[in-house]
Amino acid sequence: MPAPSTPATDPGARADQPAPMGLGTPWSRPGVTSFDLPSDGGGFRVLVARPEAPAPPGGYGILYAMDAGWTFGTLCDLERLCDKSRSGARDLPAVIVGLGWPTDSLIDFDRRGADLVGQAARGASRAATLALLAGQVIPRVEAALPVDPAHRMILGHSFGGAFALQARALCPGLFSHVATGSPSIWTDPEGIHAGARRAGGKLLITVGALEDPGAAEAAGEPVDRIARLRTRDMTGHARRFAQQAGATFRTFDGVGHGAVIPGFLGAAHAFLRC
C-alpha cells in the first residue's frame, strides 16, 4: 500500500510528532471537522469536508469514504479543485465524509480486516460497522448539512471496496451511487457475489491492469505477488461482479493495487455526478 493520504488534518501532520526544526508549525486543512463515535471494537473517527460553494436547491452531493486514511485527502483535493472551477449548475458540489479509526493516520491495521470484511480476531464486525454508518454517521451528517439523497455515494478501495459492495446489497436504496476500487471480493466471494443483483443504483468498479496475474507477470512483478494475485483473483472477481450487476467497469493501465488509488478516486468523484 502507498502512504496514506491526508489524515485528520494534513498529510504528515501527526499530533505526537513535532515539526522539523526550521520548518514551522503543523498546518491544518481548512474546512474539515471531525468527531469520534464509540463502538464495541474501539470507536471510529469521522471527518467531514464541506464545499466552499453554496448548496444547490436540491442539496449537496455526498460521498462516504470507507477506510478514509487512504482516500480522504485526495477526495478533498478533487472537490476543492472542482469548487474553484465551477461555472454552471450542472456541476454538483459534494460533501466528503471519511470514516476511519481514531489514530493520527485514520488507519488501524489491526482493525481494518474485522471492521470492513470480518477478517480478524478483534475489532467490531462488518455488520456493526454498517449499522454505525447507516444509523449514526449518515443521520448526524445529513441533519447538519443539506444533502441530495439522489447523489449519495459510498466509496471504498480494497477492503473498503468489499465493504461498499456489501452495503449496497444489505441496505438497498440507501446509496444512489457505489464506487469500488479493486474490491477484495476474495475475502467472501460467495457472500459478496450473491448480492450482485440484490440492489439497484449506479455502480462503478475499477481495477489496476497489473492486478491481473498475467499482466503482472509480463511486467516483471515479484513472483510472490503474482502468486497472491492468482489466489485472490482480484480482477476476475471484479469483472464477474460488474457483469452480474450491470456495473460500469474500468481498468487503469500500468498500475497495481495501491498505485491505482488516485485514478480510482478521480473516476469515483466524477461518477457521483452521473
UniProtKB/TrEMBL annotation:
Keyword Hydrolase assigned: yes
Keywords, in A-Z order: Hydrolase
Xref: Gene3D superfamilies: alpha/beta hydrolase
Pfam families: Esterase
Region Disordered, residue ranges: 1-34
InterPro entries the record matches: AB_hydrolase_fold, Esterase-like, Siderophore_Hydrolase_D
EC class: hydrolase
GO molecular function: hydrolase activity, acting on ester bonds
E.C. no: 3.1.-.-
Family recorded in the similarity comment: Belongs to the esterase D family.
PANTHER family, A to Z: SIDEROPHORE TRIACETYLFUSARININE C ESTERASE, SIDEROPHORE-DEGRADING ESTERASE (EUROFUNG)
Protein's name according to its UniProt entry: Ferri-bacillibactin esterase BesA
Organism (species): Pseudooceanicola marinus
Top-level taxonomy: Bacteria, Pseudomonadati, Pseudomonadota, Alphaproteobacteria, Rhodobacterales
